[in-house]
């Protein structure tokens, strides 16, 4: 059955079924030891024309638009979840990997493609640029539920969040050089400076404007705040891209600023963005799966060339790029090995592979199929073994403290009140104290405590323990004061003796 023959109701039914299938697949992906994105792609390939024949889809331009839109949402959600204090310590190596690392990887893989495909050197370098960057969607998804040490996770997430602009720039630049004989590499330098400079500047500016607007503009419903935040993500990307800057870089920087500020309805915004990012990821990978034809993808020529280039990328280009990019920085040998192994490819290379197709390059479809095969190889081999490699290299961190519960609230925006969630640890002053002894403002109340996934009804004699999740209803004007009291650290013995 072709998609053209679908009525509106049938199309909506198909969309619902694909989303439900994607959600169920995501639930069992960790149990099966496979990254969810691989299974999403398989779903798309299964319902496509070479599979069950339910949907025929070959519109590279539409897939490109859906991919870019989805990547904006995924980058925004990932940036908001990133803690600045964690990223700050790895900012330099991450930026080095996102720039020099991409260039080195692209150059090695590009030269190999030039030799394998018997194409021009520029076309080979174009192929290298397409697969040169790691993928934010893949990295965020794979690392989210895995207990990797904070330094490693922060390095990989910051790299994947900031290396897309370099890959996009290189891809578009090589397409321009191929199509326009009068173009020169030196003439692209001003364009690079504009893209990166404008992306960083507008990300900073619009991130601050978004944070201010989310906190100061009073909306009638709490459900509008998450939509408001996503609107700023789309605005940031589009404004930056229209003036010639890097929209992806701007979105990630803006998200980093917004996520590290105090926000009205922070819980609702984060939950909505996480769900929206999952939906975008499911639809994007299914669409990309629909775009490929398995009969062409698994032809002998594509499989052989794809395997050779995958080996070069995973075992040669990526390790060389990592070791050179972080040379002289405080990374142990085992940490460099892990970063080399965790350089996952995903949606970004596939989306970038649509650019040569849309531009009408002679080898565009060949490049798309080989890139798709490399992405499948990378995610299957590297994505499914990240936890195992981290364990072998002794880079497994503590279990992530994520509550397996939620507290749903009605809109209280007009009452100028907020619900704060705070996770206690042994270092904070309030641990061991009874509620009646806390010096909270009168307009702040601990409404609930969740301990070991059990709800506790608090009263004056209740003692706070390490690991508790406290839910505090507080007047907005007292929020900062309550935060300071909650985060106050216990005095060390030597500090007390000094006084």
UniProtKB/TrEMBL annotation:
Protein's recorded name: Potassium/proton antiporter
Pfam families, alphabetized: Na_H_Exchanger (PF00999), TrkA_C (PF02080)
Superkingdom: Bacteria
InterPro entries: Cation/H_exchanger_TM, Na+/solute_symporter_sf, RCK_C, RCK_C_sf
Compartment list: Cell membrane
UniProt lineage: Bacteria, Bacillati, Bacillota, Bacilli, Bacillales
Membrane association type: Multi-pass membrane protein
Keywords for the protein's UniProt record, in alphabetical order: Antiport, Cell membrane, Ion transport, Membrane, Transmembrane, Transmembrane helix, Transport
Residue stretches making up the RCK C-terminal domain: 407-488
Principal cellular location given in the protein's record: membrane
Gene3D superfamilies, A to Z: 1.20.1530.20, Regulator of K+ conductance, C-terminal domain
Keyword Ion transport applies: yes
